[in-house]
């Protein structure tokens, strides 16, 4: 079997790369050792968002009592939810399979290993390639003493398997994965505790935004312990006894029924034979790449989680397109901003620099903020938490960063991403008419606040 290009991995980055390369006239194969669609579609982004939709529906039904609509006590059938979630996954992965087929990409199931600079072993088969794209993704990181048993101690994949709703659920890790599962299990009825070793949840987020999300989650009785680490656990008749340690060395013991370990993910760069042909793989498992997504061996590319942070599906998709186009001889490079979203209720979304990052970069920072609950649409929706924060350059007024907690933040971040890509100023956002009443008005209001011209909030600039 001879191909112009082989892609290892069929996740978002991999299937985007394979399809684009085929569109450009290359003969392409895509090799996958697990299920088509990779982690994101099967055990990551998609099933998690399906469960978050269930969670939001339950909360919406409860919230309806505030305005006179009572649906009664919900009956939660976890087996039915599991079937529905798997149906969502099957529909989307089936669609990806059809896209590969429709674009004449040969899909090959099996473990791939590089034999030499132009040969891949797939089980007992051999395939040659002119170009190779490595899109092997990442896997959950382990926490010593909290190894997954698939039942009471689980990683994100195990947390997705709804067999029952535990009475007491512990999330070790206060970033996207931990918080999203805290949202799901809390809405299903679990008593949830989140433990984060650093001082704030979502450590990469702007502190003002992280604080707002924390307030919203704590208002729903999700217990958050930051500046705390889990040091040990043991099984007892009453559940799992977990010892937690604060920064000052003080300890406490809590008892839970299920533990999710969500302390991060590790790239899958090693074990495919890449090092043997000269591809540089660092001690963490990342494969080094340039702006064309080429590795240290120019005809071998790497994209997505295995290439570099952030470990986000949409970043992998864009990198896949760049790698495929460059492999096809097109003059292209990766040069784009990466928005990030946490799909809790409310959502957290950001793009560009935080206030601290802008100051560290030497900018004289201009800040504009607006509290989402003030908006007319937010009042009608019963929104109690939310904040929009814009970071700009005081000298040029250029927008440097956007950060938001609130309904639809994951969709609204696209407006800010485009603004940043186009070199927009904060005034550009202020002058742009936003439909009323919408949550998007919060962006315009924050921009007006940055210039001391806000209508619906006091103009106290920092």
What do you see in this structure?
By secondary structure, this protein is α/β, with parallel strands linked by helices. The protein has 3 domains: 2-140 and 266-327, FAD/NAD(P)-binding domain (3-Layer(bba) Sandwich); 153-263, FAD/NAD(P)-binding domain, CATH 3.50.50.60; 346-450, Enolase-like, domain 1 (2-Layer Sandwich). It has helices at 12-23, 38-43, 45-63, 78-102, 156-160, 176-188, 207-219, 313-327, 355-360, 376-381, 409-421, 426-431, 441-450; strands at 2-8, 28-32, 106-109, 112-116, 119-122, 125-134, 138-140, 153-154, 168-172, 191-196, 223-226, 228-236, 239-246, 251-256, 258-261, 265-267, 300-302, 340-342, 347-352, 365-371, 387-393, 399-406. The strands form 5 sheets. Strands 1, 2, 3, 4, 5, 6 and 17 form a 7-stranded mixed beta sheet that branches. A 5-stranded parallel beta sheet has the order 8-15-9-10-11. α1 (12-23) runs parallel beside α8. The longest helix is centred in the first third of the chain and has 25 residues, at 78-102. The model has no long low-confidence stretch (mean pLDDT 96).
Mean pLDDT score: 96
Task: Indicate the CATH topology of the largest domain.
Answer: FAD/NAD(P)-binding domain
DSSP, total strands:
22
The largest sheet, given as strand count, sense and whether it forms a barrel, is: 7 strands, mixed
The figure for the number of domains is 3
Range of helix content: 25-40%
Please identify which CATH superfamily of the largest domain we are dealing with.
Answer: FAD/NAD(P)-binding domain
State the oligomer: single chain
The low-confidence parts are none
How many individual helices?
13
């Amino acid at each position: 079997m001879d191909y112009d290009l082989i892609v290892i991995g069929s996740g978002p980055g991999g299937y985007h790369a394979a399809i684009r390369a085929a569109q450009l006239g290359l003969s392409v194969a895509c090799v996958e050792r697990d299920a088509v669609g990779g982690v994101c579609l099967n055990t990551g982004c998609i099933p998690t968002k399906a469960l978050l939709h269930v969670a939001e529906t339950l909360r919406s039904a409860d919230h309806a009592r505030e305005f006179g609509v009572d649906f009664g006590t919900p009956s939660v059938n976890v087996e039915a939810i599991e079937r529905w979630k798997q149906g969502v996954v099957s529909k989307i992965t089936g669609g990806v399979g059809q896209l590969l087929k429709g674009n004449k990409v040969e899909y090959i199931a099996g473990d791939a290993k590089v034999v030499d600079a132009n040969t891949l072993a797939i089980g007992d088969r051999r395939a040659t390639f002119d170009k190779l794209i490595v899109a092997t993704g990442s896997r959950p990181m382990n926490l010593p003493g909290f190894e997954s048993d698939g039942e009471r101690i689980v990683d994100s994949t195990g947390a997705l398997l709804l067999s029952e709703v535990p009475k007491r659920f512990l999330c070790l890790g206060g970033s996207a994965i931990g918080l999203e599962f805290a949202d799901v299990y809390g809405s299903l009825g679990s008593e949830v505790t989140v433990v984060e070793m650093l001082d704030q949840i979502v450590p990469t987020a702007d502190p003002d935004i992280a604080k707002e999300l924390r307030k919203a989650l704590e208002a729903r009785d999700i217990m958050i312990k930051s500046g705390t680490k889990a040091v040990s656990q043991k099984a007892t008749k009453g559940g799992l006894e977990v010892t937690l340690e604060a920064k000052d060395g003080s300890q406490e013991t809590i008892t839970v029924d299920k533990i999710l370990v969500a302390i991060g993910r590790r790239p899958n760069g090693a074990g495919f034979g890449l090092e043997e042909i000269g591809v540089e793989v660092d001690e963490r498992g990342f494969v080094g790449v340039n702006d064309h997504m080429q590795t240290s061996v120019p005809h071998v590319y790497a994209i997505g989680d295995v290439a570099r942070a952030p470990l986000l599906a949409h970043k992998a998709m864009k990198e896949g397109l760049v790698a495929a186009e460059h492999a096809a001889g097109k003059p292209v490079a990766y040069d784009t901003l990466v928005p990030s979203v946490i799909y809790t209720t409310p959502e957290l979304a950001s793009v560009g620099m935080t206030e601290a990052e802008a100051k560290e970069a030497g900018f004289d920072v201009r800040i504009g903020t607006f509290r989402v609950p003030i908006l007319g649409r937010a009042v009608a929706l019963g929104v109690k938490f939310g904040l929009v924060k814009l970071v700009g350059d005081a000298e040029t007024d250029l927008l440097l960063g956007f950060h938001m907690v609130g309904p639809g933040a994951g969709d609204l971040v696209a407006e800010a991403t485009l603004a940043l890509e186009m070199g927009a100023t904060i005034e550009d956002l202020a002058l742009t008419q936003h439909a009323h009443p919408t949550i998007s008005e919060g962006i315009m209001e924050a921009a007006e606040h940055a210039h001391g011209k806000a209508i619906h909030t006091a103009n106290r600039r920092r």
